Amino acid sequence: MFQLVAVGLSDGLSASHLEEQSFGPDQLKLFKFQNAEERLDVLAKLPEAISATRTDKELAQAAIKVIARRDAACPRRGLCAIPAKHVGGRRTTDDAVGTAERMTSGVSSPSRRLIHAAIDRAEGILHVWQDTDDSNPAFTVTGNLDWAFCIPFKGDHSKGWALYVSGQFGAPGASAIGESDLKGDLRFTELICDLIGSIRQVKTLESQQAGLAQFFSPAVIEAVRTAGGEDILEPREADISILFCDVRGFSKKSEEAKDLRELLDRVSEALGVMTAGIIRYDGVIADFQGDAALGFWGWPGDSEEGPVAACRAAIHIHQSFRNANNHPENPLCGFSVGVGISHGRAIAGRIGTTEQIKVGAFGPVVNMGARLETMSKQLRASIVIDEVTASYVQKLPDSDLRCRKLARVRPVGMKTDMTVFELLPPVAQDDTVSDDTVAVYNQAVDAFISGDWTNSTELLNRVPADDKTKEFLLEFAAANNNQPPQDWAGVIHMTRK
Q: I need a labelling partner for 466 at 20 to 30 A (CA). Which of 90, 240, 260, 277 fits?
Protein backbone atom coordinates (compact mmCIF):
# COMPACT_ATOMS: atom_id res chain seq x y z
CA MET A 1 0.00 0.00 0.00
CA PHE A 2 1.37 3.41 -0.98
CA GLN A 3 0.55 6.65 0.76
CA LEU A 4 1.44 10.09 -0.56
CA VAL A 5 2.40 12.45 2.26
CA ALA A 6 3.48 16.10 2.20
CA VAL A 7 6.38 16.64 4.55
CA GLY A 8 7.02 20.21 5.66
CA LEU A 9 8.75 20.60 8.99
CA SER A 10 9.75 24.23 8.70
CA ASP A 11 6.55 25.35 10.40
CA GLY A 12 7.22 23.16 13.42
CA LEU A 13 4.69 20.43 12.58
CA SER A 14 5.62 16.85 13.39
CA ALA A 15 6.35 14.27 10.73
CA SER A 16 3.46 12.82 8.75
CA HIS A 17 1.73 9.88 10.38
CA LEU A 18 1.50 6.37 8.97
CA GLU A 19 -2.05 5.71 10.19
CA GLU A 20 -4.93 7.80 11.50
CA GLN A 21 -8.07 6.74 13.34
CA SER A 22 -10.81 9.02 14.64
CA PHE A 23 -13.22 8.29 17.47
CA GLY A 24 -16.46 10.08 18.30
CA PRO A 25 -17.84 10.19 21.86
CA ASP A 26 -20.26 7.35 21.17
CA GLN A 27 -17.44 5.12 19.95
CA LEU A 28 -15.26 5.86 22.95
CA LYS A 29 -18.05 4.78 25.29
CA LEU A 30 -17.71 1.23 23.89
CA PHE A 31 -14.07 0.92 25.02
CA LYS A 32 -13.23 -0.63 28.38
CA PHE A 33 -11.10 0.97 31.07
CA GLN A 34 -7.86 -0.67 32.24
CA ASN A 35 -6.09 -0.23 35.59
CA ALA A 36 -9.37 0.93 37.15
CA GLU A 37 -8.05 1.27 40.71
CA GLU A 38 -5.08 3.48 39.77
CA ARG A 39 -7.15 5.61 37.44
CA LEU A 40 -9.85 6.16 40.04
CA ASP A 41 -7.10 7.45 42.31
CA VAL A 42 -6.11 9.99 39.63
CA LEU A 43 -9.72 11.10 39.18
CA ALA A 44 -10.11 11.50 42.94
CA LYS A 45 -7.04 13.77 43.19
CA LEU A 46 -7.71 15.84 40.09
CA PRO A 47 -10.53 18.13 41.36
CA GLU A 48 -8.61 19.16 44.48
CA ALA A 49 -5.46 19.84 42.48
CA ILE A 50 -7.06 22.16 39.94
CA SER A 51 -9.91 23.75 41.90
CA ALA A 52 -7.58 26.24 43.61
CA THR A 53 -5.85 27.36 40.40
CA ARG A 54 -6.45 30.94 39.25
CA THR A 55 -5.38 30.99 35.59
CA ASP A 56 -5.69 28.66 32.62
CA LYS A 57 -1.94 28.07 32.68
CA GLU A 58 -2.01 27.06 36.37
CA LEU A 59 -4.96 24.76 35.68
CA ALA A 60 -3.08 23.05 32.83
CA GLN A 61 0.04 22.64 34.93
CA ALA A 62 -1.84 21.18 37.91
CA ALA A 63 -3.82 18.78 35.74
CA ILE A 64 -0.74 17.51 33.92
CA LYS A 65 1.14 16.97 37.19
CA VAL A 66 -1.66 14.78 38.55
CA ILE A 67 -2.10 12.86 35.31
CA ALA A 68 1.63 12.25 34.83
CA ARG A 69 2.28 11.40 38.51
CA ARG A 70 1.27 7.75 38.24
CA ASP A 71 2.64 5.66 35.39
CA ALA A 72 0.09 2.98 36.15
CA ALA A 73 -2.72 5.38 35.44
CA CYS A 74 -1.09 6.80 32.30
CA PRO A 75 0.94 3.87 30.96
CA ARG A 76 3.53 4.33 28.23
CA ARG A 77 2.94 8.08 28.00
CA GLY A 78 5.82 10.29 27.00
CA LEU A 79 3.99 13.61 26.82
CA CYS A 80 0.83 15.23 28.12
CA ALA A 81 -0.25 18.69 27.05
CA ILE A 82 -3.34 20.87 27.27
CA PRO A 83 -3.17 23.23 24.28
CA ALA A 84 -5.35 26.04 23.02
CA LYS A 85 -5.71 27.49 19.52
CA HIS A 86 -7.15 30.28 17.40
CA VAL A 87 -5.79 33.31 19.26
CA GLY A 88 -6.33 36.50 17.28
CA GLY A 89 -7.29 34.49 14.20
CA ARG A 90 -4.00 32.51 14.27
CA ARG A 91 -3.53 28.90 15.14
CA THR A 92 -1.35 28.67 18.18
CA THR A 93 -0.69 26.70 21.35
CA ASP A 94 -0.32 28.33 24.73
CA ASP A 95 2.38 28.06 27.37
CA ALA A 96 0.75 24.98 28.86
CA VAL A 97 2.30 22.84 26.10
CA GLY A 98 5.84 23.94 26.86
CA THR A 99 5.23 23.47 30.55
CA ALA A 100 4.02 19.92 29.97
CA GLU A 101 7.15 19.03 28.03
CA ARG A 102 9.38 19.97 30.96
CA MET A 103 7.35 17.94 33.44
CA THR A 104 7.35 14.61 31.60
CA SER A 105 9.87 12.23 30.16
CA GLY A 106 10.28 11.20 26.55
CA VAL A 107 10.29 14.82 25.47
CA SER A 108 8.97 15.55 22.00
CA SER A 109 7.17 18.41 20.37
CA PRO A 110 3.44 17.76 20.25
CA SER A 111 1.95 17.30 16.80
CA ARG A 112 0.15 20.55 16.06
CA ARG A 113 -1.41 18.93 13.00
CA LEU A 114 -3.01 16.31 15.26
CA ILE A 115 -4.12 18.92 17.82
CA HIS A 116 -5.75 21.17 15.24
CA ALA A 117 -7.44 18.29 13.46
CA ALA A 118 -8.96 16.96 16.69
CA ILE A 119 -10.25 20.39 17.74
CA ASP A 120 -11.58 21.29 14.28
CA ARG A 121 -13.39 17.97 13.89
CA ALA A 122 -14.50 17.81 17.56
CA GLU A 123 -13.50 14.16 17.89
CA GLY A 124 -10.64 12.13 19.28
CA ILE A 125 -7.93 11.32 16.73
CA LEU A 126 -5.13 8.73 16.96
CA HIS A 127 -1.96 9.00 14.88
CA VAL A 128 0.49 6.10 14.52
CA TRP A 129 3.95 6.88 13.17
CA GLN A 130 5.62 3.46 13.50
CA ASP A 131 4.02 0.22 12.37
CA THR A 132 3.72 -2.57 14.88
CA ASP A 133 6.62 -4.71 13.57
CA ASP A 134 9.04 -1.78 13.92
CA SER A 135 10.03 -2.02 10.25
CA ASN A 136 9.60 1.61 9.42
CA PRO A 137 11.43 3.79 11.99
CA ALA A 138 11.51 6.69 9.54
CA PHE A 139 7.99 7.57 10.63
CA THR A 140 8.84 7.76 14.34
CA VAL A 141 8.90 11.26 15.81
CA THR A 142 12.42 11.86 17.21
CA GLY A 143 12.88 8.08 17.13
CA ASN A 144 11.38 7.23 20.54
CA LEU A 145 7.60 7.78 20.23
CA ASP A 146 5.32 5.62 18.14
CA TRP A 147 1.81 6.99 18.62
CA ALA A 148 -0.13 9.99 19.83
CA PHE A 149 -3.77 10.86 20.28
CA CYS A 150 -5.66 14.04 21.07
CA ILE A 151 -9.07 14.37 22.74
CA PRO A 152 -10.83 17.76 22.47
CA PHE A 153 -12.77 19.24 25.37
CA LYS A 154 -16.52 19.64 25.08
CA GLY A 155 -18.58 22.79 25.64
CA ASP A 156 -18.22 26.45 24.74
CA HIS A 157 -16.33 27.28 27.95
CA SER A 158 -13.39 25.07 26.88
CA LYS A 159 -13.51 25.58 23.14
CA GLY A 160 -10.00 25.21 21.68
CA TRP A 161 -8.76 23.03 24.56
CA ALA A 162 -7.64 19.42 24.20
CA LEU A 163 -5.59 16.76 25.99
CA TYR A 164 -2.65 15.40 23.99
CA VAL A 165 -0.93 12.08 24.85
CA SER A 166 1.91 10.26 23.10
CA GLY A 167 3.97 7.15 23.85
CA GLN A 168 5.62 3.94 22.71
CA PHE A 169 4.28 0.52 21.80
CA GLY A 170 7.04 -1.24 23.72
CA ALA A 171 8.75 1.13 26.10
CA PRO A 172 11.83 -0.27 27.89
CA GLY A 173 10.80 -1.99 31.09
CA ALA A 174 7.10 -1.78 30.24
CA SER A 175 4.73 -4.46 29.07
CA ALA A 176 3.72 -4.52 25.43
CA ILE A 177 0.76 -2.41 24.50
CA GLY A 178 -2.13 -3.74 22.50
CA GLU A 179 -5.04 -2.17 20.68
CA SER A 180 -7.40 -2.63 23.65
CA ASP A 181 -4.91 -0.89 25.96
CA LEU A 182 -4.66 2.12 23.66
CA LYS A 183 -8.43 2.34 23.35
CA GLY A 184 -8.70 2.18 27.12
CA ASP A 185 -6.29 5.10 27.32
CA LEU A 186 -8.48 7.00 24.86
CA ARG A 187 -11.58 6.37 26.97
CA PHE A 188 -9.84 7.41 30.20
CA THR A 189 -8.42 10.56 28.59
CA GLU A 190 -11.91 11.55 27.44
CA LEU A 191 -13.14 11.13 31.01
CA ILE A 192 -10.36 13.40 32.27
CA CYS A 193 -11.26 15.97 29.60
CA ASP A 194 -14.88 15.94 30.72
CA LEU A 195 -13.87 16.40 34.35
CA ILE A 196 -11.40 19.22 33.68
CA GLY A 197 -13.87 20.86 31.30
CA SER A 198 -16.63 20.79 33.92
CA ILE A 199 -14.36 22.29 36.60
CA ARG A 200 -13.18 24.94 34.17
CA GLN A 201 -16.79 25.79 33.33
CA VAL A 202 -17.55 26.25 37.02
CA LYS A 203 -14.47 28.45 37.43
CA THR A 204 -15.55 30.52 34.42
CA LEU A 205 -19.01 31.00 35.90
CA GLU A 206 -17.45 31.96 39.24
CA SER A 207 -15.29 34.51 37.44
CA GLN A 208 -18.33 35.94 35.68
CA GLN A 209 -20.19 36.12 38.97
CA ALA A 210 -17.23 37.92 40.55
CA GLY A 211 -17.43 40.43 37.71
CA LEU A 212 -21.15 40.90 38.31
CA ALA A 213 -20.42 41.55 41.98
CA GLN A 214 -18.78 44.83 40.93
CA PHE A 215 -22.16 46.06 39.69
CA PHE A 216 -24.78 43.98 41.53
CA SER A 217 -25.27 43.33 45.21
CA PRO A 218 -25.29 39.71 46.44
CA ALA A 219 -29.09 39.89 46.74
CA VAL A 220 -29.44 40.94 43.09
CA ILE A 221 -27.00 38.27 41.91
CA GLU A 222 -28.95 35.65 43.83
CA ALA A 223 -32.18 36.86 42.22
CA VAL A 224 -30.61 36.59 38.77
CA ARG A 225 -29.28 33.12 39.55
CA THR A 226 -32.51 31.67 40.94
CA ALA A 227 -34.69 33.25 38.23
CA GLY A 228 -32.80 31.71 35.35
CA GLY A 229 -30.43 34.51 34.35
CA GLU A 230 -31.32 35.72 30.88
CA ASP A 231 -35.09 36.17 31.28
CA ILE A 232 -34.86 38.33 34.37
CA LEU A 233 -32.47 40.71 32.59
CA GLU A 234 -35.10 41.57 29.98
CA PRO A 235 -36.30 45.21 30.24
CA ARG A 236 -39.52 45.65 32.18
CA GLU A 237 -41.52 48.52 33.64
CA ALA A 238 -41.21 48.92 37.40
CA ASP A 239 -41.21 51.44 40.25
CA ILE A 240 -37.59 52.53 40.34
CA SER A 241 -35.58 54.56 42.83
CA ILE A 242 -32.74 56.51 41.23
CA LEU A 243 -29.63 57.72 43.06
CA PHE A 244 -27.32 60.08 41.21
CA CYS A 245 -24.11 60.90 43.07
CA ASP A 246 -21.45 63.43 42.07
CA VAL A 247 -18.10 64.39 43.60
CA ARG A 248 -17.82 68.01 44.76
CA GLY A 249 -14.52 69.81 44.43
CA PHE A 250 -13.29 67.73 41.50
CA SER A 251 -13.03 70.64 39.05
CA LYS A 252 -10.98 72.69 41.48
CA LYS A 253 -8.73 69.76 42.31
CA SER A 254 -8.19 68.99 38.62
CA GLU A 255 -7.08 72.58 37.99
CA GLU A 256 -4.66 72.44 40.90
CA ALA A 257 -3.42 68.93 40.19
CA LYS A 258 0.20 68.52 39.24
CA ASP A 259 -0.02 64.75 39.11
CA LEU A 260 -2.99 63.58 37.00
CA ARG A 261 -2.39 59.97 37.95
CA GLU A 262 -2.77 60.81 41.63
CA LEU A 263 -5.96 62.73 40.86
CA LEU A 264 -7.32 59.77 38.90
CA ASP A 265 -6.56 57.45 41.82
CA ARG A 266 -8.41 59.77 44.20
CA VAL A 267 -11.44 59.97 41.93
CA SER A 268 -11.40 56.19 41.57
CA GLU A 269 -11.38 55.96 45.36
CA ALA A 270 -14.40 58.28 45.47
CA LEU A 271 -16.26 56.21 42.90
CA GLY A 272 -15.40 53.13 44.93
CA VAL A 273 -17.08 54.63 48.01
CA MET A 274 -20.19 55.42 45.96
CA THR A 275 -20.26 51.93 44.48
CA ALA A 276 -19.81 50.29 47.88
CA GLY A 277 -22.69 52.32 49.33
CA ILE A 278 -25.05 51.42 46.49
CA ILE A 279 -24.20 47.72 46.56
CA ARG A 280 -24.31 47.58 50.37
CA TYR A 281 -28.01 48.43 50.23
CA ASP A 282 -28.79 46.03 47.36
CA GLY A 283 -28.73 48.59 44.57
CA VAL A 284 -27.58 48.17 40.98
CA ILE A 285 -24.75 50.18 39.43
CA ALA A 286 -26.10 51.55 36.15
CA ASP A 287 -23.36 53.87 34.97
CA PHE A 288 -20.32 56.00 35.72
CA GLN A 289 -20.05 59.46 34.20
CA GLY A 290 -16.68 60.99 34.94
CA ASP A 291 -16.71 61.58 38.68
CA ALA A 292 -20.40 60.64 39.08
CA ALA A 293 -22.18 57.33 39.66
CA LEU A 294 -25.75 56.25 38.91
CA GLY A 295 -27.44 53.53 40.93
CA PHE A 296 -31.02 52.31 41.09
CA TRP A 297 -33.37 50.04 43.06
CA GLY A 298 -36.59 48.20 42.20
CA TRP A 299 -35.05 45.78 39.69
CA PRO A 300 -34.65 42.87 39.10
CA GLY A 301 -36.98 42.37 42.06
CA ASP A 302 -39.50 44.85 43.41
CA SER A 303 -38.40 46.93 46.39
CA GLU A 304 -40.81 46.50 49.32
CA GLU A 305 -39.59 49.66 51.09
CA GLY A 306 -39.60 51.86 47.99
CA PRO A 307 -36.78 54.43 47.93
CA VAL A 308 -35.74 53.90 51.56
CA ALA A 309 -32.80 51.67 50.57
CA ALA A 310 -31.57 54.38 48.19
CA CYS A 311 -31.81 56.88 51.05
CA ARG A 312 -29.77 54.67 53.35
CA ALA A 313 -27.13 54.29 50.63
CA ALA A 314 -27.00 58.08 50.18
CA ILE A 315 -26.50 58.66 53.91
CA HIS A 316 -23.75 56.02 53.99
CA ILE A 317 -21.93 57.65 51.05
CA HIS A 318 -22.30 61.16 52.50
CA GLN A 319 -21.00 60.11 55.91
CA SER A 320 -18.03 58.30 54.33
CA PHE A 321 -16.94 61.50 52.59
CA ARG A 322 -17.61 63.59 55.69
CA ASN A 323 -15.51 61.31 57.87
CA ALA A 324 -12.69 61.32 55.31
CA ASN A 325 -12.34 65.09 55.64
CA ASN A 326 -11.30 64.62 59.26
CA HIS A 327 -8.21 62.70 58.11
CA PRO A 328 -5.78 64.63 55.87
CA GLU A 329 -4.05 61.43 54.80
CA ASN A 330 -7.29 60.00 53.39
CA PRO A 331 -7.46 60.17 49.53
CA LEU A 332 -11.03 61.53 49.85
CA CYS A 333 -9.97 64.46 52.04
CA GLY A 334 -10.95 67.69 50.32
CA PHE A 335 -13.84 66.14 48.45
CA SER A 336 -17.53 66.24 49.30
CA VAL A 337 -20.50 64.71 47.56
CA GLY A 338 -23.88 65.77 46.17
CA VAL A 339 -26.72 63.28 45.81
CA GLY A 340 -30.12 63.36 44.13
CA ILE A 341 -32.79 60.72 44.72
CA SER A 342 -36.04 60.32 42.77
CA HIS A 343 -38.66 57.60 42.68
CA GLY A 344 -41.11 56.71 39.93
CA ARG A 345 -42.06 54.52 37.01
CA ALA A 346 -39.29 53.52 34.59
CA ILE A 347 -38.06 50.70 32.39
CA ALA A 348 -35.10 48.78 33.80
CA GLY A 349 -33.02 45.88 32.53
CA ARG A 350 -30.72 45.31 29.59
CA ILE A 351 -30.63 48.54 27.63
CA GLY A 352 -28.42 49.43 24.67
CA THR A 353 -27.59 48.62 21.07
CA THR A 354 -26.70 45.24 19.65
CA GLU A 355 -23.04 46.25 19.76
CA GLN A 356 -23.03 47.29 23.42
CA ILE A 357 -25.54 46.28 26.07
CA LYS A 358 -25.56 47.29 29.71
CA VAL A 359 -27.98 47.15 32.61
CA GLY A 360 -29.68 50.44 33.27
CA ALA A 361 -32.92 52.35 33.77
CA PHE A 362 -34.81 54.53 31.29
CA GLY A 363 -37.48 57.14 31.93
CA PRO A 364 -38.13 60.68 33.25
CA VAL A 365 -37.34 59.56 36.81
CA VAL A 366 -33.70 58.99 35.77
CA ASN A 367 -33.39 62.53 34.45
CA MET A 368 -35.08 63.82 37.61
CA GLY A 369 -32.47 62.12 39.80
CA ALA A 370 -29.72 63.92 37.89
CA ARG A 371 -31.61 67.23 38.14
CA LEU A 372 -31.97 66.87 41.90
CA GLU A 373 -28.26 66.19 42.27
CA THR A 374 -27.45 69.34 40.29
CA MET A 375 -30.02 71.26 42.32
CA SER A 376 -28.24 70.27 45.52
CA LYS A 377 -25.44 72.69 44.59
CA GLN A 378 -27.86 75.61 44.31
CA LEU A 379 -29.79 74.63 47.41
CA ARG A 380 -26.53 74.06 49.34
CA ALA A 381 -27.81 70.71 50.54
CA SER A 382 -25.89 67.44 50.38
CA ILE A 383 -28.77 65.09 49.55
CA VAL A 384 -31.90 66.33 47.74
CA ILE A 385 -34.93 64.08 47.30
CA ASP A 386 -38.29 64.41 45.58
CA GLU A 387 -41.75 64.42 47.18
CA VAL A 388 -42.41 60.71 46.72
CA THR A 389 -39.15 59.77 48.39
CA ALA A 390 -39.83 62.26 51.20
CA SER A 391 -43.23 60.68 51.85
CA TYR A 392 -41.54 57.33 52.52
CA VAL A 393 -38.94 58.90 54.81
CA GLN A 394 -41.58 60.80 56.79
CA LYS A 395 -43.24 57.50 57.69
CA LEU A 396 -40.04 56.30 59.36
CA PRO A 397 -39.19 57.08 62.99
CA ASP A 398 -36.85 60.06 63.47
CA SER A 399 -34.31 57.68 64.93
CA ASP A 400 -33.94 56.17 61.45
CA LEU A 401 -33.96 58.81 58.69
CA ARG A 402 -35.20 62.41 58.58
CA CYS A 403 -35.93 65.02 55.95
CA ARG A 404 -36.83 68.71 55.83
CA LYS A 405 -38.63 70.75 53.21
CA LEU A 406 -36.37 73.04 51.16
CA ALA A 407 -38.52 74.83 48.58
CA ARG A 408 -41.10 74.48 45.86
CA VAL A 409 -39.37 74.79 42.49
CA ARG A 410 -39.78 74.37 38.75
CA PRO A 411 -36.59 72.94 37.21
CA VAL A 412 -35.25 74.41 33.98
CA GLY A 413 -36.93 72.95 30.91
CA MET A 414 -39.81 71.40 32.88
CA LYS A 415 -43.44 72.42 33.17
CA THR A 416 -44.17 70.65 36.44
CA ASP A 417 -43.64 72.21 39.86
CA MET A 418 -42.24 70.07 42.65
CA THR A 419 -41.41 70.34 46.32
CA VAL A 420 -37.88 69.28 47.11
CA PHE A 421 -36.53 68.03 50.45
CA GLU A 422 -33.18 67.48 52.08
CA LEU A 423 -32.44 64.00 53.40
CA LEU A 424 -30.82 63.95 56.85
CA PRO A 425 -29.32 61.20 59.00
CA PRO A 426 -30.70 60.56 62.49
CA VAL A 427 -29.46 62.92 65.22
CA ALA A 428 -27.65 60.03 66.93
CA GLN A 429 -25.54 59.62 63.80
CA ASP A 430 -25.07 63.30 62.94
CA ASP A 431 -26.31 66.13 65.20
CA THR A 432 -25.27 68.92 62.81
CA VAL A 433 -28.97 69.59 62.19
CA SER A 434 -31.14 69.14 65.28
CA ASP A 435 -34.79 68.11 65.30
CA ASP A 436 -35.72 71.62 66.51
CA THR A 437 -33.92 73.14 63.53
CA VAL A 438 -35.81 70.82 61.19
CA ALA A 439 -39.13 71.92 62.69
CA VAL A 440 -38.27 75.63 62.42
CA TYR A 441 -37.02 75.19 58.87
CA ASN A 442 -40.22 73.46 57.75
CA GLN A 443 -42.27 76.34 59.19
CA ALA A 444 -40.05 78.87 57.41
CA VAL A 445 -40.46 77.14 54.04
CA ASP A 446 -44.24 76.87 54.44
CA ALA A 447 -44.38 80.62 55.24
CA PHE A 448 -42.17 81.36 52.24
CA ILE A 449 -44.40 79.35 49.87
CA SER A 450 -47.54 81.05 51.22
CA GLY A 451 -46.01 84.50 50.60
CA ASP A 452 -45.38 85.45 54.25
CA TRP A 453 -41.75 86.27 53.64
CA THR A 454 -41.43 88.44 56.77
CA ASN A 455 -42.28 85.54 59.03
CA SER A 456 -40.22 83.19 56.85
CA THR A 457 -37.13 85.40 57.11
CA GLU A 458 -37.52 85.65 60.87
CA LEU A 459 -37.72 81.88 61.19
CA LEU A 460 -34.75 81.30 58.87
CA ASN A 461 -32.64 83.68 60.94
CA ARG A 462 -33.27 81.42 63.93
CA VAL A 463 -31.55 78.59 62.07
CA PRO A 464 -27.85 78.26 63.10
CA ALA A 465 -25.48 80.35 61.01
CA ASP A 466 -23.41 77.38 59.90
CA ASP A 467 -26.50 75.86 58.23
CA LYS A 468 -25.83 77.19 54.73
CA THR A 469 -28.98 75.68 53.25
CA LYS A 470 -31.09 78.63 54.44
CA GLU A 471 -29.06 81.01 52.25
CA PHE A 472 -30.89 79.91 49.11
CA LEU A 473 -34.26 81.28 50.29
CA LEU A 474 -32.74 84.34 51.97
CA GLU A 475 -30.83 85.30 48.80
CA PHE A 476 -33.90 84.77 46.63
CA ALA A 477 -35.98 86.96 48.93
CA ALA A 478 -33.28 89.65 48.99
CA ALA A 479 -33.14 89.66 45.19
CA ASN A 480 -36.87 90.49 45.24
CA ASN A 481 -36.55 93.20 47.94
CA ASN A 482 -37.96 90.76 50.50
CA GLN A 483 -41.40 91.06 48.88
CA PRO A 484 -43.13 88.27 46.95
CA PRO A 485 -43.68 89.12 43.25
CA GLN A 486 -47.27 90.04 42.32
CA ASP A 487 -47.69 86.75 40.44
CA TRP A 488 -46.17 84.73 43.27
CA ALA A 489 -47.56 81.21 43.43
CA GLY A 490 -45.05 79.79 45.87
CA VAL A 491 -42.79 78.40 43.13
CA ILE A 492 -39.18 79.37 42.44
CA HIS A 493 -38.31 79.02 38.76
CA MET A 494 -34.78 77.64 38.58
CA THR A 495 -32.59 79.50 36.11
CA ARG A 496 -29.95 76.83 35.50
CA LYS A 497 -29.61 73.11 35.56
A: 277
